[in-house]
Amino acid sequence: MLRRAFAAAGLMALCLLPAQAQDLITKKQVFELPSFTTQSGRTLKSVKVGWESYGTLNADKSNAILICHFFSATGHAAGKYAESDKAAGYWDAIIGPGKAIDTNKYFVFSSDTLVNLSPADPNVTTTGPASIDPDTGKPYGYLSEANPNGFPIVSIRDFIEVQKKLVDSLGIKKMHMVGGASMGGIQTFEWAGAYPDMVARIMPVIASAEADAGLIDWLDIWATPIRLDPKWKGGDYGNDPPLAGFAQALKIVTLHAQTNAWATGAFGAKWAKEGESPYKSFSNRYLVETALDNAGMARAKTSDANHFLYLVRANQLFGEGAAERMKAIKAPALMIYSPGDLVFPVESVRRTADALKANGVPVEQVELKGNRGHLDGVLSIKQAEQTISAFVAK
C-alpha cells in the first residue's frame, strides 16, 4: 500500500538492487485533464499526473501493459531517467529488454497516482491537497470543517479513472495486462472489476481484493502520529510541516512492511551508542529505534503529510464494494505473495484467490521466499520471473 519501498528503509533497500537499467532510459511525461469528477462528486479543474513508458506500442495497440504503483512509490517502475541515476525504477528486475515483462515485445507504462506521497519530487506530477486550486490561486489544503473547499477525499477508483483517461488518450482499447504491488495490486483488482472487458490478465502482487477491518485499522495507526503532532494543525500547516509525527508514521509503515527477522538481522538488540546502556537512562536507546527514526525523518522531509493521509483514506475505502468487485472480475490472475507479509497476510490473499476461483477465474499463485515480508513483493520479485514471463506470454 504501500517510493522505493514504503518509507526510507525501503528506499535504502532498493539501492541494493542490481543495476540492470543501462539499456532502458525513460522520461517523465505529463497527462492533463481539463476537469475530473471524483467518486465523491467534486469536479476538479486541471488535473495532472506524471507518466512514463518503456517499449513501443504496436500498430493495433494490443501490447500495452499498465503497471500501478504502491503506496510510497511513483510511476517510476523501471529504467532510469539518466545513466547517472543511482537507482533504477522499483521493478527494474522484471521490466526491460529481455526481462520477464519484455519491453522488446510490450509497451509498458505507469503513472503517478493522484495525491502521490511526494508532490515536491521534480520527477513527480500529481494533483492533490498541496496543488494550487485554479479558482483561488492557493493550495487546496486538507478537507475539513474549517476548509470545506479543501481537496476532496479520493479513492482507488479515482486513481484508476484518471489512468483510464490516459489509456483512452493513447487509443488503447484493451490492455494485455494490468499489474502492480501492494496499493498497485489493489488498483489492479479495481481495474479488473470496473472494466473487465479492458483487461486481458492481471498480476496483483502482495495484495488482496479486500481491505478488511484489520487493514483499515492498521492504516489508521499509520496516520495517527501525524494527527497527534501539534504542528499538523488540522492539515493547515503551511510551510511548517509536522515532521516529527510524519517521521513516526513512516517508521510504523517501514516496520509493518518488514519482518522481525529483518529487523533482528539488521540491528539485533544493539545499543544506539556504545557505552550508553538503556538500563541507565530513558534517553539511551536501541539502534533499531534510532535507525528507523532517522530513516523516517529523511523521508518525511521529501514527502507531504497531508498527501500521506489522503493515501491512507483511499486505501481504507477500497473495502467498500469488495464483494461486487470480486464478482465482476473475469481476467485470469497471477497472484504473487509473501508468506511473511503483515500488510496483506497470506490468509487474505488466499481468500481472494479462492473467491476468484469460485467465480470461474483461472488463478495461479507464486510464493516469494525471503525475510522482508511485504517488501519481498518489490525486493524479491525476480524470483517469480519465469512464471511472470510465461503468464504474460499466454
Describe the structure using short key phrases.
12 strands; alpha/beta; disordered N terminus; Rossmann fold; single chain; 34% helix; 394 residues; 8-stranded mixed β-sheet
CATH architecture grouping:
3-Layer(aba) Sandwich
In what order do the strands lie side by side in the largest sheet?
1-2-6-3-9-10-11-12
Q: How would you describe the shape? A: globular
Q: Under the CATH scheme, which class?
A: Alpha Beta
CATH-level-4 superfamily name:
Alpha/Beta hydrolase fold, catalytic domain
Q: SS-based structural class?
A: alpha/beta
CATH topology: Rossmann fold
Which quaternary structure do these chains form?
single chain
How would you explain this protein's 3D organization?
This protein has 394 residues and is α/β, with parallel strands linked by helices. The protein has one domain (7-213, 321-393): Rossmann fold (3-Layer(aba) Sandwich). 34% of the residues lie in helices and 15% in strands. The chain has 12 helices and 12 strands. The strands form 3 sheets. An 8-stranded mixed sheet has the order 1-2-6-3-9-10-11-12, sandwiched between helices. It has a two-stranded parallel sheet with strand order 4-5. Strands 7-8 form a two-stranded antiparallel sheet. A hairpin with a 4-residue loop joins β7 (132-133) and β8. The two termini are 28 Å apart.
